[in-house]
Amino acid sequence: xxxxxxxxxxxxxxxxxxxxxxxxxxxxxxxxxxxxxxxxxxxxxxxxxxxxxxxxxxxxxxxxxxxxxxxxxxxxxxxxxxxxxxxxxxxxxxxxxxxxxxxxxxxxxxxxxxxxxxxxxxxxxxxxxxxxxxxxxxxxxxxxxxxxxxxxxxxxxxxxxxxxxxxxxxxxxxxxxxxxxxxxxxxxxxxxxxxxxxxxxxxxxxxxxxxxxxxxxxxxxxxxxxxxxxxxxxxxxxxxxxxxxxxxxxxxxxxxxxxxxxxxxxxxxxxxxxxxxxxxxxxxxxxxxxxxxxxx
Length: 296
Fold this sequence. Notes:
Layout: H1 9-17, H2 26-34, E1 37-50, E2 58-59, E3 62-63, E4 74-78, E5 91-96, H3 98-121, E6 126-137, E7 142-154, E8 165-166, H4 171-179, E9 182-197, H5 200-206, H6 223-244, E10 248-262, E11 265-279
Parallel strand pairs: 6-8
Antiparallel strand pairs: 1-7, 2-3, 4-5, 5-9, 6-7, 9-11, 10-11
């Protein structure tokens, strides 16, 4: 279909040559062109995942034991006191929610795969500037995963027959990776989820009191929560290493969040993402960009 005749000549020429979409900023778009990466189009992937909640809660004022069949990290915290009342939390537990982690990994991988399929259909060599969003839906244990990026083709390179590479990087950050002699392979991401069921000592600390044995001016770590955070970080790092297959992780971004589901019931989630890269050449400075607009 020919472009309308009432459009400017430059616009008619662009439409006649074929149009494309892009998720890049102007600066990142220019950087891609300077690296010989031709943007082809905006590609996206989506997935919605649901996982079941565990059992457990407060029954008659006493914390009921949660259903734990994960086989992952777990620690039990016993009551250090010499007596127990009906309201006393005689024990606590930290444990890894492997079913949450598995559902998250499946959702992210599915959305990434669908984005790559769109890039493959465009004949792309890679996808740059990947943006990932995760949106929980109310309290239903459902999360939506949406990944989008800009498919690119290496100018002058033969038709790519394999799976396009992906990266969260774009613009100058991507240029520096190429300049250092590394090539992006894939965007990697993982999540770890640790549940904290507080024992009596942790409960008193989270409430800001020392409990029946507390006194004014006490300063102490909340050991159960500290150890849960440390375990969640270790789990996330270990899981990302398995995705690297011996390659390097560049541009790592770690986000830890704590959510309170009820009194003494916390969920600590650590999300770690980055770019799997591999050295393919020695350091080689990129050509200095040439001015395209003269200001004087």
